[in-house]
């Protein structure tokens, strides 16, 4: 055996554990999401979709520059979270962000969410800003509770990691939203 053959064999052997973990070398199916992980993803997408839909509106309709800036950040974050959760559910992933469309976002809303969205669309100026911030604060508190509930019972390592990251961001957003609410009066 020559040196090149030895290196190729060693390289192939080094890949076997990684491929095995991914389920490729052993042809094992991917682990599907358990009931708790599915419930977590569904609830997070439901509440997150309302946050995304209202924030998309607020990026153009908010009158306060800080509210508009928050809405821009929230859109980016909620589009990313929705993409990650969809990827976890479908098992399909890609490097490019695949945010949900308006139709997909609205399909995730429950009746209360659709009502809240319609109410917000009818407002403008300071009334819009105050109502948007109050709705975001309520939604973020719901999102925090959803994350903390899953962290108590979750078993899916990847989803637990995502949940821990989300929880930290949600806490920061609640602080920021409370500051904005105080500023708006």
TrEMBL record:
Signal peptide: 1-27
Highest taxon above the source species: Bacteria
Keywords tagged on the record: Signal
This protein's name: DUF4142 domain-containing protein
InterPro entries noted in UniProt: DUF4142 (IPR025419), Ferritin-like (IPR012347)
Domain DUF4142: 38-180
Pfam name, any one: DUF4142
